[in-house]
Specification:
Layout: H1 8-18, H2 28-41, H3 45-63, H4 65-72, H5 78-91, H6 94-104
Helix pairs in contact: 2-3, 3-4
Length: 105
C-alpha cells in the first residue's frame, strides 16, 4: 500500500521540526506594547517576539553565556524595587514620560 503523495510524511516531519508552537503568557502591558510595536513595524507579533529573542540570544552569545547568566541573577530586593519604580513611572504625566525617555535614549 502506497501513500497518494510519496514523501508527504517526510515533508510534514521536516516542517514540524522547523517551527515549534507554544503558548506565551504575557502581562497585559507587554501585550499592549508588542501590539503597538508590531503595528508600527508592520510585522506580526510573532515576528516581533522572534526578533527580540534572536537579538537577546545573539547578545548572550557575544558576551559569553556565563556572564549573561550571572547578570540575570536577581538580588532578592530587586522585585520590590522594580515594582516601586514601575508604580512611580505610571504616575508620571505623558510629557514627563517623554522627557525621561528622551533623556535615557
Amino acid at each position: 500500500m502506497m501513500d497518494s503523495e510519496p514523501g508527504n510524511n517526510d515533508m510534514q516531519a521536516a516542517q514540524a521540526s522547523e517551527v515549534n508552537k507554544f503558548i506565551l503568557r504575557l502581562p497585559c502591558e507587554y501585550h499592549a506594547h508588542l501590539t503597538e510595536i508590531s503595528r508600527l513595524n508592520r510585522r506580526s507579533m510573532n515576528s516581533e517576539i522572534t526578533l527580540l529573542v534572536e537579538r537577546h540570544l545573539s547578545d548572550i552569545m557575544a558576551r559569553g553565556l556565563q556572564s549573561s547568566v550571572d547578570s540575570l541573577r536577581l538580588n532578592p530586593a530587586t522585585p520590590q524595587a522594580a515594582d516601586k519604580l514601575i508604580e512611580k513611572l505610571q504616575e508620571l504625566s505623558l510629557e514627563k514620560k517623554k522627557a525621561l525617555l528622551a533623556l535615557l535614549g
